[in-house]
Amino acid sequence: MELRVILSSLALSHLLTYLLQFKYFYNEKALWTVDYVRSFSAPVIEYDDSGEDPSVKPEDILKYKYTDEPSLDLWVYDGHSIDDIPHYGNVRSPLRDMYVLHSRLHTFLIPIAQLMLRSLGQWHGYFYEANGIRETDGTDSMITLVLAPAQGDYELKANAWSNRGRYTVTGSWSKSGEDVLQIKLKMTFSTAFWAPMYFNGRFDPKRDALMGVWDVSEYPDSSSGKMEFRRILPHCLTVYPSINELSQNKPRALWRFAIAAVRNDIRRESWSWSFFSQRRDDRETVISLTIRSLFFGKPPDDEDVSKLCEAVQRLTPADACFYSSKINRKRAHTWVHA
Protein backbone atom coordinates (compact mmCIF):
# COMPACT_ATOMS: atom_id res chain seq x y z
CA MET A 1 0.00 0.00 0.00
CA GLU A 2 2.77 2.43 0.88
CA LEU A 3 4.55 1.76 -2.43
CA ARG A 4 1.32 2.40 -4.32
CA VAL A 5 0.85 5.68 -2.52
CA ILE A 6 4.41 6.77 -3.37
CA LEU A 7 4.03 5.83 -7.02
CA SER A 8 0.71 7.64 -7.36
CA SER A 9 2.03 10.78 -5.67
CA LEU A 10 5.18 10.85 -7.80
CA ALA A 11 3.26 10.32 -11.03
CA LEU A 12 0.78 13.10 -10.25
CA SER A 13 3.53 15.43 -9.09
CA HIS A 14 5.53 14.90 -12.28
CA LEU A 15 2.44 15.37 -14.42
CA LEU A 16 1.57 18.68 -12.79
CA THR A 17 5.15 19.85 -13.13
CA TYR A 18 5.23 19.07 -16.87
CA LEU A 19 1.86 20.68 -17.49
CA LEU A 20 2.82 23.87 -15.64
CA GLN A 21 6.09 24.18 -17.49
CA PHE A 22 4.86 23.24 -20.97
CA LYS A 23 3.93 26.85 -21.72
CA TYR A 24 7.62 27.73 -21.42
CA PHE A 25 8.65 25.35 -24.22
CA TYR A 26 8.98 28.18 -26.74
CA ASN A 27 10.00 30.81 -24.18
CA GLU A 28 12.70 29.21 -22.05
CA LYS A 29 14.00 32.53 -20.69
CA ALA A 30 10.70 33.20 -18.95
CA LEU A 31 11.09 29.96 -17.03
CA TRP A 32 13.78 31.48 -14.81
CA THR A 33 12.52 35.01 -14.36
CA VAL A 34 12.52 36.42 -10.83
CA ASP A 35 8.72 36.52 -10.69
CA TYR A 36 8.39 32.90 -11.72
CA VAL A 37 10.98 31.62 -9.23
CA ARG A 38 9.42 33.59 -6.36
CA SER A 39 5.94 32.34 -7.15
CA PHE A 40 6.97 28.72 -7.55
CA SER A 41 6.06 26.29 -4.80
CA ALA A 42 6.02 22.52 -4.74
CA PRO A 43 2.44 21.21 -4.87
CA VAL A 44 1.11 19.50 -1.77
CA ILE A 45 -0.86 16.40 -2.70
CA GLU A 46 -2.98 14.83 0.00
CA TYR A 47 -3.50 11.12 -0.21
CA ASP A 48 -7.04 9.75 -0.17
CA ASP A 49 -7.13 5.99 0.17
CA SER A 50 -10.78 5.82 -0.82
CA GLY A 51 -9.89 7.10 -4.27
CA GLU A 52 -7.27 4.42 -4.93
CA ASP A 53 -7.74 1.04 -6.58
CA PRO A 54 -6.79 -1.63 -4.01
CA SER A 55 -6.32 -4.26 -6.70
CA VAL A 56 -3.35 -2.47 -8.37
CA LYS A 57 -0.07 -4.34 -8.00
CA PRO A 58 3.33 -2.69 -8.51
CA GLU A 59 4.53 -5.60 -10.66
CA ASP A 60 1.68 -4.89 -13.11
CA ILE A 61 2.91 -1.32 -13.57
CA LEU A 62 6.68 -1.69 -13.42
CA LYS A 63 6.85 -4.33 -16.15
CA TYR A 64 7.78 -2.31 -19.23
CA LYS A 65 11.25 -2.76 -20.62
CA TYR A 66 13.59 0.17 -20.99
CA THR A 67 14.17 1.26 -24.55
CA ASP A 68 17.19 3.16 -25.72
CA GLU A 69 16.53 6.83 -26.33
CA PRO A 70 17.01 8.21 -29.85
CA SER A 71 20.70 8.71 -30.54
CA LEU A 72 22.25 11.70 -32.27
CA ASP A 73 23.72 11.12 -35.73
CA LEU A 74 27.23 12.27 -34.84
CA TRP A 75 28.68 9.83 -37.37
CA VAL A 76 28.02 12.36 -40.16
CA TYR A 77 30.92 14.44 -38.83
CA ASP A 78 33.49 11.64 -38.94
CA GLY A 79 35.31 13.31 -41.83
CA HIS A 80 34.87 10.42 -44.26
CA SER A 81 31.15 11.01 -44.65
CA ILE A 82 31.54 14.71 -45.45
CA ASP A 83 34.73 15.43 -47.32
CA ASP A 84 35.78 12.20 -49.02
CA ILE A 85 34.56 11.89 -52.59
CA PRO A 86 35.69 8.39 -53.61
CA HIS A 87 36.56 7.98 -57.28
CA TYR A 88 35.96 4.71 -59.04
CA GLY A 89 39.66 4.36 -59.87
CA ASN A 90 41.13 5.54 -56.60
CA VAL A 91 39.61 3.65 -53.69
CA ARG A 92 40.87 1.22 -51.12
CA SER A 93 39.75 -2.31 -50.39
CA PRO A 94 37.21 -3.63 -49.72
CA LEU A 95 35.50 -0.88 -51.73
CA ARG A 96 37.93 -1.54 -54.60
CA ASP A 97 36.70 -5.12 -54.83
CA MET A 98 33.16 -3.85 -55.28
CA TYR A 99 34.19 -1.89 -58.37
CA VAL A 100 35.40 -4.93 -60.28
CA LEU A 101 33.08 -6.11 -63.03
CA HIS A 102 31.61 -9.56 -62.73
CA SER A 103 33.11 -12.02 -65.21
CA ARG A 104 29.64 -12.84 -66.53
CA LEU A 105 29.36 -9.48 -68.34
CA HIS A 106 29.38 -9.93 -72.10
CA THR A 107 31.90 -8.27 -74.38
CA PHE A 108 29.39 -5.83 -75.89
CA LEU A 109 28.62 -4.51 -72.41
CA ILE A 110 32.19 -3.48 -71.58
CA PRO A 111 31.97 0.18 -72.81
CA ILE A 112 28.71 0.82 -70.96
CA ALA A 113 30.00 -1.13 -67.97
CA GLN A 114 32.95 1.22 -67.79
CA LEU A 115 30.51 4.11 -67.60
CA MET A 116 28.72 2.27 -64.81
CA LEU A 117 31.97 2.08 -62.86
CA ARG A 118 32.49 5.81 -63.31
CA SER A 119 29.01 6.47 -61.93
CA LEU A 120 29.86 4.82 -58.61
CA GLY A 121 30.94 6.69 -55.51
CA GLN A 122 29.64 9.66 -53.55
CA TRP A 123 27.10 12.08 -55.00
CA HIS A 124 25.34 15.18 -53.70
CA GLY A 125 22.13 16.61 -55.12
CA TYR A 126 18.97 18.64 -54.71
CA PHE A 127 15.31 18.22 -55.52
CA TYR A 128 14.17 20.68 -58.19
CA GLU A 129 10.78 21.75 -59.42
CA ALA A 130 9.71 20.91 -62.99
CA ASN A 131 11.10 24.23 -64.29
CA GLY A 132 14.56 23.57 -62.84
CA ILE A 133 14.26 25.89 -59.84
CA ARG A 134 15.11 24.56 -56.39
CA GLU A 135 12.10 23.71 -54.28
CA THR A 136 10.42 26.85 -52.98
CA ASP A 137 7.61 25.19 -51.03
CA GLY A 138 9.33 21.98 -49.95
CA THR A 139 11.57 21.36 -46.98
CA ASP A 140 13.96 18.77 -48.42
CA SER A 141 17.65 19.42 -47.95
CA MET A 142 20.57 18.42 -50.14
CA ILE A 143 21.06 14.64 -50.35
CA THR A 144 24.27 12.63 -50.17
CA LEU A 145 24.34 9.09 -51.49
CA VAL A 146 27.22 6.64 -51.93
CA LEU A 147 26.47 4.51 -54.98
CA ALA A 148 27.89 0.97 -55.16
CA PRO A 149 27.21 -2.28 -57.06
CA ALA A 150 24.61 -4.61 -55.56
CA GLN A 151 24.25 -8.39 -55.77
CA GLY A 152 23.08 -8.63 -59.38
CA ASP A 153 25.03 -7.57 -62.47
CA TYR A 154 22.64 -4.72 -63.21
CA GLU A 155 21.67 -3.79 -59.66
CA LEU A 156 22.82 -0.82 -57.59
CA LYS A 157 22.57 0.17 -53.94
CA ALA A 158 23.50 3.16 -51.84
CA ASN A 159 23.53 4.59 -48.35
CA ALA A 160 22.05 8.07 -48.25
CA TRP A 161 21.40 10.84 -45.74
CA SER A 162 19.63 14.20 -45.61
CA ASN A 163 17.15 15.91 -43.31
CA ARG A 164 15.05 12.76 -43.69
CA GLY A 165 17.71 10.94 -41.70
CA ARG A 166 19.75 8.00 -42.95
CA TYR A 167 18.09 5.68 -45.44
CA THR A 168 18.75 3.07 -48.07
CA VAL A 169 18.64 3.33 -51.85
CA THR A 170 18.17 0.48 -54.31
CA GLY A 171 18.21 0.61 -58.09
CA SER A 172 19.46 -0.65 -61.41
CA TRP A 173 21.39 0.45 -64.48
CA SER A 174 20.87 -0.30 -68.16
CA LYS A 175 22.09 0.67 -71.62
CA SER A 176 20.07 3.03 -73.79
CA GLY A 177 20.95 4.43 -77.22
CA GLU A 178 24.59 5.13 -78.02
CA ASP A 179 26.24 3.90 -74.82
CA VAL A 180 23.95 6.02 -72.63
CA LEU A 181 23.88 4.77 -69.04
CA GLN A 182 20.36 4.86 -67.64
CA ILE A 183 20.00 4.74 -63.85
CA LYS A 184 16.87 4.11 -61.78
CA LEU A 185 16.88 4.54 -58.00
CA LYS A 186 14.32 4.04 -55.24
CA MET A 187 14.78 5.90 -51.95
CA THR A 188 13.16 4.16 -48.98
CA PHE A 189 13.04 6.12 -45.73
CA SER A 190 13.25 4.79 -42.20
CA THR A 191 9.88 6.19 -41.19
CA ALA A 192 6.50 5.62 -42.83
CA PHE A 193 5.87 9.36 -42.58
CA TRP A 194 7.63 9.75 -45.95
CA ALA A 195 6.59 7.74 -48.98
CA PRO A 196 9.33 6.21 -51.18
CA MET A 197 10.76 8.44 -53.90
CA TYR A 198 12.03 7.44 -57.33
CA PHE A 199 14.84 8.81 -59.49
CA ASN A 200 14.90 8.07 -63.21
CA GLY A 201 17.85 9.49 -65.12
CA ARG A 202 21.21 8.98 -66.78
CA PHE A 203 24.91 9.43 -66.14
CA ASP A 204 26.58 12.30 -68.03
CA PRO A 205 30.32 11.46 -68.24
CA LYS A 206 31.24 14.88 -69.66
CA ARG A 207 29.74 16.82 -66.77
CA ASP A 208 30.32 13.98 -64.29
CA ALA A 209 26.71 14.27 -63.20
CA LEU A 210 23.62 12.15 -62.61
CA MET A 211 20.72 13.92 -64.33
CA GLY A 212 17.06 12.99 -64.33
CA VAL A 213 13.66 13.42 -62.71
CA TRP A 214 12.19 12.45 -59.35
CA ASP A 215 8.66 11.55 -58.36
CA VAL A 216 6.69 9.71 -55.69
CA SER A 217 5.56 7.42 -58.51
CA GLU A 218 7.79 4.87 -60.19
CA TYR A 219 6.63 6.14 -63.56
CA PRO A 220 7.51 9.84 -64.09
CA ASP A 221 5.34 12.20 -66.11
CA SER A 222 5.40 15.83 -67.23
CA SER A 223 4.79 17.05 -63.68
CA SER A 224 7.84 15.25 -62.26
CA GLY A 225 10.50 17.45 -60.73
CA LYS A 226 14.07 17.55 -61.97
CA MET A 227 17.03 16.23 -60.01
CA GLU A 228 20.77 16.45 -60.44
CA PHE A 229 23.63 14.90 -58.48
CA ARG A 230 27.17 16.26 -58.64
CA ARG A 231 30.52 15.39 -57.04
CA ILE A 232 30.99 18.98 -55.87
CA LEU A 233 31.68 19.29 -52.13
CA PRO A 234 28.44 19.90 -50.22
CA HIS A 235 29.43 23.28 -48.76
CA CYS A 236 30.20 24.45 -52.31
CA LEU A 237 27.08 22.90 -53.82
CA THR A 238 24.90 25.02 -51.49
CA VAL A 239 25.82 28.06 -53.62
CA TYR A 240 25.89 26.23 -56.97
CA PRO A 241 23.44 27.63 -59.56
CA SER A 242 20.19 25.83 -60.19
CA ILE A 243 19.38 23.94 -63.38
CA ASN A 244 17.22 26.87 -64.48
CA GLU A 245 20.01 29.43 -63.90
CA LEU A 246 22.50 27.35 -65.88
CA SER A 247 20.09 27.01 -68.80
CA GLN A 248 19.45 30.76 -68.97
CA ASN A 249 22.99 32.10 -68.75
CA LYS A 250 25.59 29.47 -67.92
CA PRO A 251 28.74 31.69 -68.03
CA ARG A 252 27.20 34.29 -65.72
CA ALA A 253 25.83 31.62 -63.36
CA LEU A 254 29.18 29.84 -63.08
CA TRP A 255 31.03 33.14 -62.53
CA ARG A 256 28.68 34.04 -59.68
CA PHE A 257 29.15 30.55 -58.28
CA ALA A 258 32.95 30.93 -58.33
CA ILE A 259 32.74 34.21 -56.41
CA ALA A 260 30.24 32.82 -53.88
CA ALA A 261 32.25 29.61 -53.35
CA VAL A 262 35.49 31.53 -52.70
CA ARG A 263 33.79 33.89 -50.26
CA ASN A 264 32.16 30.94 -48.53
CA ASP A 265 35.52 29.16 -48.18
CA ILE A 266 37.14 32.28 -46.74
CA ARG A 267 34.39 32.58 -44.14
CA ARG A 268 34.74 28.91 -43.21
CA GLU A 269 38.52 28.76 -43.06
CA SER A 270 38.90 32.04 -41.17
CA TRP A 271 36.27 31.00 -38.62
CA SER A 272 34.41 34.26 -39.16
CA TRP A 273 31.58 35.18 -36.82
CA SER A 274 29.20 35.57 -39.76
CA PHE A 275 29.78 31.93 -40.70
CA PHE A 276 29.11 30.56 -37.21
CA SER A 277 26.16 32.88 -36.53
CA GLN A 278 24.57 31.77 -39.82
CA ARG A 279 24.99 28.11 -38.86
CA ARG A 280 23.51 28.79 -35.42
CA ASP A 281 20.53 30.68 -36.83
CA ASP A 282 19.88 28.00 -39.46
CA ARG A 283 20.07 25.25 -36.84
CA GLU A 284 17.60 26.97 -34.51
CA THR A 285 15.27 27.81 -37.39
CA VAL A 286 15.24 24.31 -38.86
CA ILE A 287 14.79 22.50 -35.54
CA SER A 288 12.08 24.75 -34.09
CA LEU A 289 10.03 25.24 -37.26
CA THR A 290 10.26 21.58 -38.31
CA ILE A 291 8.91 20.51 -34.91
CA ARG A 292 6.09 23.03 -35.16
CA SER A 293 5.35 21.98 -38.74
CA LEU A 294 5.35 18.21 -38.30
CA PHE A 295 4.73 17.39 -34.64
CA PHE A 296 3.48 19.92 -32.10
CA GLY A 297 3.38 23.58 -31.21
CA LYS A 298 2.00 26.64 -32.95
CA PRO A 299 1.61 25.87 -36.68
CA PRO A 300 4.03 27.96 -38.77
CA ASP A 301 2.57 30.71 -40.94
CA ASP A 302 3.58 31.42 -44.54
CA GLU A 303 6.51 33.59 -43.44
CA ASP A 304 7.78 30.84 -41.15
CA VAL A 305 7.52 28.23 -43.92
CA SER A 306 9.45 30.47 -46.31
CA LYS A 307 12.11 31.02 -43.65
CA LEU A 308 12.35 27.27 -43.04
CA CYS A 309 12.73 26.48 -46.77
CA GLU A 310 15.53 29.01 -47.16
CA ALA A 311 17.40 27.67 -44.14
CA VAL A 312 17.05 24.05 -45.27
CA GLN A 313 18.48 24.89 -48.70
CA ARG A 314 21.65 26.20 -47.04
CA LEU A 315 22.29 22.99 -45.09
CA THR A 316 24.78 20.33 -46.07
CA PRO A 317 23.45 16.75 -45.88
CA ALA A 318 25.59 16.16 -42.77
CA ASP A 319 24.11 19.11 -40.89
CA ALA A 320 20.61 18.27 -42.10
CA CYS A 321 20.88 14.65 -40.94
CA PHE A 322 22.28 15.66 -37.55
CA TYR A 323 19.56 18.27 -36.99
CA SER A 324 16.97 15.64 -37.90
CA SER A 325 18.29 13.38 -35.14
CA LYS A 326 18.07 16.29 -32.67
CA ILE A 327 14.47 16.86 -33.74
CA ASN A 328 13.60 13.19 -33.17
CA ARG A 329 15.29 13.24 -29.78
CA LYS A 330 13.49 16.40 -28.71
CA ARG A 331 10.17 14.99 -29.85
CA ALA A 332 10.78 11.79 -27.87
CA HIS A 333 11.48 13.79 -24.70
CA THR A 334 8.42 16.04 -24.97
CA TRP A 335 4.99 15.27 -23.60
CA VAL A 336 2.36 15.82 -26.25
CA HIS A 337 -1.41 16.06 -25.81
CA ALA A 338 -2.93 13.30 -27.91
Would you give an account of this structure?
- By secondary structure, the chain is an alpha+beta fold.
- The protein has a domain at 74-233: Lipocalin (Beta Barrel), CATH 2.40.128.
- The protein is built from twelve helices and eight strands.
- Strands 1-2-3-4-5-6-7-8 form an eight-stranded antiparallel β-barrel.
- α10 packs across α11 (302-313) and α10 (273-294) packs across α12 (317-332).
- The protein starts with a helix and ends in a 6-residue tail after the last helix.
Can you identify the CATH superfamily of the domain at 74-233?
Quinohemoprotein amine dehydrogenase alpha subunit, domain 2
Tally of DSSP β-strands = 8
Straight-line N-to-C gap = 31 Å
Order of helices and strands: HHHHHHEEEEEEEEHHHHHH
Helix count, per DSSP? 12
What is the top-level CATH class of the domain at 74-233?
Mainly Beta
CATH architecture of the domain at 74-233: Beta Barrel
CATH topology of the domain at 74-233: Lipocalin
Radius of gyration: 26 Å
- The 3D shape can be described as globular
Main beta sheet: 8 strands, antiparallel, barrel
Beta-strand content estimate: 15-25%
* Structural class designation: alpha+beta
Mean pLDDT: 79
Lateral arrangement of strands in the main beta sheet: 1-2-3-4-5-6-7-8
Percent helix, as a range, is 25-40%
Low-confidence stretches: 1-8, 82-109
